[in-house]
Amino acid sequence: MESLYVLGARQRKLLLKDEEEWNLYEAALIFHLNPNTGAVRTCVEYQTPLEARANEHSSNVFKSGTLVGNILYTCTSTEVLIFRLPNFERIGFISLPCFNDLHHVTPTQDGHLLVASTGLDMVVKFTLQGEVLAEWSVLGEDPWSRFSRSVDYRKVESTKPHQSHPNFVFEMDGDVWVTRLRQRDAISLERPGKRIDIAVQSPHDGFVCGHHIYFTTVDGRVAIANRRNLQIDKIVDLKEIGEEKALLGWCRGLLPVDERRIWIGFTRVRKTRFKENVLWVANILREGVIQKPTHIALYDLTSRQCLQEVDLESHGMNIVFSIFAASP
User: For 4-139+152-325, which CATH superfamily applies?
Assistant: First the structure.
């Protein structure tokens, strides 16, 4: 099995057990992981500069990114960073006042960038120099009807609760698409009405691969949509594979290996005062159920087998967002 890059963060030692995510993580991390040997190497350990975050206690997390050739695009809550691999030379940095709780960044086919500014329920398109080209509210309203252009949202700790919580952006057939956690769907931002219904649970990711789009849902399912008719062709419930009586974790991050196999990321579920975000946990937790640590797992979706698991917590990563194939 080829080596992997895994993006996430290390949790700080807690003073309060119910610390929220925006204060929970002390260092953003990128690991190089060899599934064959179990060897893990830290490629990047990073903290957002104080001028680009709300305060010194703000979390530092690498969220979802995109790997194109040897160029890695990733984001923290308030920045976009671009690295040249395999040495992780930083070749780009953009931080804009409209960046709040970023969840994903991806390059566009015309050479620009798209981010999900989750805290503003917005998707932003901008140049590599930071010039904003377009802004979309994921709810179809004026992007600034609920927010103010005069506010630097990098300095706002949190805007929760979000009305939509967009979390992954992708291009497909010339359109910009985004997944929406609360609406349980993916929509086109440029052609209103084009929509993929992911009704089973709140989605993340939106990995376009051939004729299909792969979505994770937070409760541990993979929904595979047909890009031609925008319908869900198949749903695989990972909770029904492998150990019974196990809470896999918050499911986010995927990497298709081939037509059968796929890597999936899971983050240990933590307590939060936003109970509606984790209502699905109540349907899983029951007497005797164990809670798994933050980990990645390789599944065969055809034979419905878990082929391998890698515990990330033992190496100091407590939240995972992205998984990429590393070049030899």
Answer: YVTN repeat-like/Quinoprotein amine dehydrogenase (2.130.10.10)
